[in-house]
Structures are given as structure tokens and as C-alpha cells.
Amino acid sequence: MDTTSRILMFLEVVEQGSFAKVAERRNIDRSVVSKQMNKLEDDLGVRLLNRTTRSFSLTAAGSEMLKKAKELRELLGETLTIAQNYHTEPKGLLKVTSSTIIGKRYILPVAIEFQQRFPQVEVEIRLEDRLVDVVGEGYDLAFRVGPPRDSSLISRAIARNRMLIVAAPKFLETYGEPKTMQQLAKLPAATYASDALKVSQLPYYDSKGNETTITINSQFRANDGDVLISKAISGTAYCAVPAFVISDEVMSGRLVPILTHVKLPDYHSVQAVYPHRGLPVRTQLFFEAVRDFIGKETPNWEKNIPDFDKMYGFEVKDSSPVGRWTA
Amino acid sequence: MDTTSRILMFLEVVEQGSFAKVAERRNIDRSVVSKQMNKLEDDLGVRLLNRTTRSFSLTAAGSEMLKKAKELRELLGETLTIAQNYHTEPKGLLKVTSSTIIGKRYILPVAIEFQQRFPQVEVEIRLEDRLVDVVGEGYDLAFRVGPPRDSSLISRAIARNRMLIVAAPKFLETYGEPKTMQQLAKLPAATYASDALKVSQLPYYDSKGNETTITINSQFRANDGDVLISKAISGTAYCAVPAFVISDEVMSGRLVPILTHVKLPDYHSVQAVYPHRGLPVRTQLFFEAVRDFIGKETPNWEKNIPDFDKMYGFEVKDSSPVGRWTA
DNA sequence: GTTTATTGTTGCCATTGTGGCACTAATAAA
DNA sequence: TTTATTAGTGCCACAATGGCAACAATAAAC
């Protein structure tokens, strides 16, 4: 990274008011921002920022540098725009894997629009709920729940993942609505099971605020979220599912969230996994398109569940793993 | 190196008309310029230069990019100037070694002026005619004749090095003026001898144009050029010396170039040697100051010998090891 | 006032990019 | 036609980058 790029990062730091925010926006570690700002000051031989451990202020030099930095960004933008007037389109194969539900609902729409924007990019999507070998099977990008087993891979959280417990009204008529997790545990459950993820216990916070788990009565298992939802709608089992599985089942009343007063912990976040950094441009652009489609603050799938943020003890303030924004 | 720096290099390439010239000016290998221009075109996704193996022309995109590149350079210059208004001075120790003559005449004056510009830089000069261990003895920079023995060091030619043969008028009265190298070989010579360099034969081109050497009659040896010059001035020996040894001895008539019709090959160039690339700024600045002081095209020491470029078969065109410039 | 959460910093390390060298191909100059 | 010079490229050593983990300190929460 050269001085010019560091100046542009400096500008972003000042505009965002935070090293941490810039890191999150750029999908890099916070330490990178810190180090690059230090290097910029070494390059220029002048201090631009006075820092405390949680904030900073501009020096006189920093204030003056800011004006020039804005002109620099504008000019560089114009320069790059010239190039784009002569651009050759990005092309090549983009091979992506995802779990089935996420793939169908969130990756596929993005891929369709992405190929409209870049017709010369070939996209290959593999919907796999089993563990995949990202490197060995030649994937450019993988979307998974939870961190990868292979620590040599790079993984970024792109959306928080919250669970909810749903049942059909018919189910509640048959079994009565459970008031406690212990009551729930006796009822028949439909649960998710695949190589990568197997649900047999539910974690929750007890009345004393301690996180604990309870073994549930799993009577039906499948590795497809739609199948679990169908089973729940049939009224013959309840299920606990990630919010991203829900389409309009709650909006339409076919499924009802239950035990919403119980506090549940966030589940493993949805991650984008890639084999190494320095992604090709088409991969980076696709990654960003998916993240924008899902939504950076609140995953769009949570909008399918009215008042979801008031259920299960979720904080009203956003506790997303991708970072909390101050106003 | 980022896109902005590559754009600035692109601008320089166009202005200089040559990858090779830019490389020489920046003290980098020619392959670096080639590769960076290719990367710039990859970054921008557009071709800027059409190349043949010895020249290039601008594409339409390249022409348009050129205008923006000039604005970019100007703005970046202004930005850096702001920083310099708040600058802290470069400081630290700069430890340099050089052969005695070069050190006294060319390094010392530069070091004096350099420390006036940068009072907080300490300079330590070691005048050594023996082989030195650049890394082991902690030198930042060494100026030597000829390439270093240790191939792990980085070495750049900074000045060509041509020999001449001089004698005092009194010497010529005593022995007569030699007309051939064979006649010269019989006369008493004062020659240079140190650990690093020992002269006992003179190379020259014979009447058929073949490079050959002749053993000379070395009657006096010293490792100090001034001493050899003094011996020659005394009229008791001639000597063959590098041009950088000559001050005003020729201008004043105290020494006369002889056998000037004989064609002599260039000798090992004067090199700057440093332990690794990525030099600290003070070292880089000092290096550039020395190179400017010596002169990039024709070493300034050659100006001490009137009509030197017409002697000894030296090409009228400049055959400096640091590169030849087309008009 | 105390405790907790968050941010900026820094050491360490694996990975990637840079820069230098050697060699090649091709073209301009001799 | 021959020679010299320039741009290109493969290979490799070295330096920079980016990520992770842990720490210190401060702002926010209680």
C-alpha cells in the first residue's frame, strides 16, 4: 500500500470517526488500519491524528491534510472513471458454494443480477449442506453457518444468525402452548441434521441468566430447512430454526413463534469463506453484492418475522457480529 | 505499489519516452517498470501503451489518462508539501565507506552539505582501500570501484571510470616521449596497489583492434592516488590512473597525458553498494546527492582533463555504464 | 464509583507482492 | 546484414501486507 492509498484510508477514518468502522467497511482487520495510519505518519514525517484508546482527534496537520485528501479522492475517482470508459468486462469462472437455504434464497438472486451486470462472468453454484473442501474442490467463495473447520481459510461474518421456535396453530391446539423450555422439551420436535450441523439440544438463558442447554425430543430430522418448515406447518412437530429459513410462514400465520419470552443466544453467524486473501475482482464484487443483498446491519430475513427484535431477549441495540454502529 | 504510484510511473515513462530511462532515473531494474506498467493496465482493465521491443506509443486511453496523471502528480505534490510544512527532520546515523580518493574528493563535500541540510543526521565516513564487509561492519552505503565480491549485496554503477596515462614534462625530457605501449612498458611506472586493486598490467586495444594487456615496469607502488600523482609530478615515473584521481595537475601543465592515440578500454565503473534494497530515506537522499555531485552523464572529474573525450579512443558518444540517452 | 465492553496497539507469522537477475526475442541503429 | 539496445518474462530472495491473538486503556453501562 502506497502513500496515496494511505491518505485515502486516513480520509475514510476521519469521515467514519473510527478505525474499527473503516476496518469493517473494508473487510480487513482493525490492526491493519492502525498500522497503515502509523505508516502514513512515518511516510509524511508528521502526526495527523492524536489517539486515545477509544477515539482520536485531528492535529493541525491532519486538518489541513484532510482538504487535500478529498481533492485527491475526487481526482483519482475521475482518473479511474476514464479507464472505465475503455473497460474490458471482468470475466472468468466464479465458483460458489452455499448451504441450500442460503443458496436458494440469497445467493441465487444475487448471482442472476450479477451476471446481468457482467455477462462474461460464468457462475457455478453448488448447494451443499455437507462439509466441503473449499480449496480442494476449487471454490472461490463459500457461504456457511459458523466458522470453517479448516483454519487456513479466511472467514468473514456477513450476517448474524438468530434462532426462533415455531409451531403451527394446529400443533398448539393439540399439545397446548408450552410455557417453559422444560415443557417444550417433552413435545415432538423436527430438527436439522447434516454432516456440518446437527441440532439435538437448544441453548437458552435460564431465569438466573445462565446459559444452558436442554435436550429436545427430536422426532423428525432432515438436512433441508424447507422440509423442516413443511413438517412444522403440518402441525405434527415444532421446530427451532435460524431466522433465514423463514419466508412468509410467520407473516401468513401458518407458523407462530412460541416461548418468545425465553432469552436465546445468537447462533453461529453466517460466514463468507475464501481460500486466501487478495480475491480476484469478480469474487470481491460478488461478495459485496451478497452482503448488500442480505443487509449489513439487520439481515433482511429478520424482516419476515414481525417484531422479531423484541423476541427472545434480543437486545434492542444491534449486537451483530459484524459490528455495532454508533449514531 | 498501488495504482496511483503506477499512474505516476506511467506518466514518467511517457515523458521520458523509455522504460529503460525511467528505470535508470529511479535506480530500479528495467523489468520492474515493465511489470508495473503491465499491472497498471491490469488494474485499470485497459491498454495504455502499445509496445514494440524497443519503443512504444500511446493508445487513445493512454493519451486521455496522461492528462489526469499530470493533475494527479501536481495534487500529490501539493499534498506532500503540506506535510513537509510540519515536517520533522530525518535523523539517525548514516555510515558510509569509500576508497580514499573518492571519499576525500566526492563523498566528503557531499556529506558536509548534506549535514547542513539535515543537521540531525550523523554521518560517519570510513576511507578504506581494503576490502570491507559492508554488512558485517554496519555500513549503510559503500562507494567502490568495480562490482562487490559479495553477490548478496546490491550494487549500482554511478559513474564510468576511464584511465589515462600521465607523465611530468621533466620525465619526458629525461626519457623521451614513448610512441608505443611497448616503449612505455620499459619506462619506470608508479602504480596503484591495495588489497582491493592491484595494477601490474595495462589493458589496451592493439593496432588490429584486439583487447590485450601489457606488463608494465612498476617501480613504485602505493595505495594512495595522491601519492602516485606526487611521484609522477616529481618526474621520476609515469603513472596510469583513473580520471577521478586528477585535480588540476593536467590543467596546470604539471602532468601531461601521453600515448593518447592508443585506445584504452573503460575500467570498472564506480559503484554504490548497499546491503539490501528499501534504503532508509536518509541513505537514499545521500546516494542521490553523491550521484548528482559526481554527475550522471559525464563524471565531473573528467572536466579536469581538457579534451579527455577525444583521447584514448573513447567514443564521442557517451558509453557510460549508467545508460545512454537518445536525443 | 465500579464493572464491562469496545477500540486502538503491537508482536508474531503465513502469505503475497516487489524488486533484482538472467535470459530471450525483436526491433532500431550501425 | 550484423550488432546493440530495449521491453518482456521466469525464477527467486526479500520485504510488506494482512490476520490473529492478546493487551492496555478509556468510554459506556450499571
From TrEMBL, chains A, B:
InterPro entries, per database record: LysR-type_TF_proteobact-type (IPR058163), LysR_HTH_N (IPR000847), LysR_subst-bd (IPR005119), WH-like_DNA-bd_sf (IPR036388), WH_DNA-bd_sf (IPR036390)
Record GO terms (molecular function): DNA-binding transcription factor activity; sequence-specific DNA binding
Keyword Phosphoprotein included in the entry's annotation: no
One example of a Gene Ontology biological process annotation: DNA-templated transcription
Protein origin, superkingdom: Bacteria
Keywords noted in UniProt: DNA-binding, Transcription, Transcription regulation
Family in the record: Belongs to the LysR transcriptional regulatory family.
Protein name: Transcriptional regulator
